Amino acid sequence: MMTPITGQSYQVTLQDEIALSTDHFVGVDSFQNTYYITQNTLYKKQASGIYEYTALNLGAIASVDIINPLKITVFYKNSNTAVILDNTLTEITRINFSSIVAFRNVSHATTAGDRRLWIYNTDVQRLEIFDYNQLKVITEFPPMQEIAKELVSNFNICLIKTTSELQFYNIYGSLIDTTDVDSQYTNLYLNNGNLLGIVDKKLYYKAQTDEKFIPVEIPEISIKQFSINDEILYIYDGQNLTSFLLKLSKE
């Protein structure tokens, strides 16, 4: 029987460990399918087999958003292009922000909902919500004084990390919160309003109501990438994918 590892505001219990050799672990979706990138090809591994998607003409994959496994957002920063894929990694549509009427340079793009994307427009340094069926921006946020370093989102909330702070926006176009952050925190991840990030290959956690990050007490694993889905924490160390049950404690 496995013994839970307790921390200040969470409980972590080891679940499983499997070998995985890849360049970048993306995450595990709500159907327990695993996504990863090897040699700039996106793979989806499920019980029945493996799907793959490659678009080498678009450059390197900058990000993959699997929050909606039926409409996956793959962003190629170098070509200013977002691609929407279905659950077999077949293209649904491709949005080249350089060729639309309202041309804009985009540094980040993630899923905002059905037919919508969160995008960061570097021309005017602001967050926008883009409808890719209508090929137009439907929500504009106030311009920012600093450039976005990271963009993390779900359907309703978008978090932007700048050099000095975190800015939280809602789907209606409002800035709802800001907080200072040490720039060393990377690979930020939103989980039920709370925040996780990596420093020196270790995982840290910040509750929605707290000001500081605290370490997540897990076995000694050098973290390369991680994701969370249905209270399962997945950590990739470059060789193995380890899963933990992650529960917030009620202290």
Structure description:
Helices cover about 0% and strands about 55% of the residues. Strands 1-2-25-24-23 form a five-stranded antiparallel beta sheet, with no helix packed on it. It has a four-stranded antiparallel beta sheet with strand order 3-4-5-6, with no helix packed on it. Strands 7-8-9-10 form a four-stranded antiparallel beta sheet, with no helix packed on it. It is an all-beta fold and about 250 residues long. A hairpin with a 4-residue loop joins β13 and β14. It is built from no helices and 25 strands.
Secondary structure topology:
Elements: E1 5-6, E2 11-19, E3 24-28, E4 34-38, E5 41-46, E6 49-53, E7 63-65, E8 72-76, E9 81-85, E10 91-96, E11 106-113, E12 116-121, E13 126-131, E14 136-140, E15 150-153, E16 157-161, E17 165-170, E18 175-180, E19 186-191, E20 194-199, E21 202-206, E22 214-215, E23 225-229, E24 232-236, E25 240-247
Antiparallel strand pairs: 1-2, 2-25, 3-4, 4-5, 5-6, 7-8, 8-9, 9-10, 11-12, 12-13, 13-14, 15-16, 16-17, 17-18, 19-20, 20-21, 21-22, 23-24, 24-25
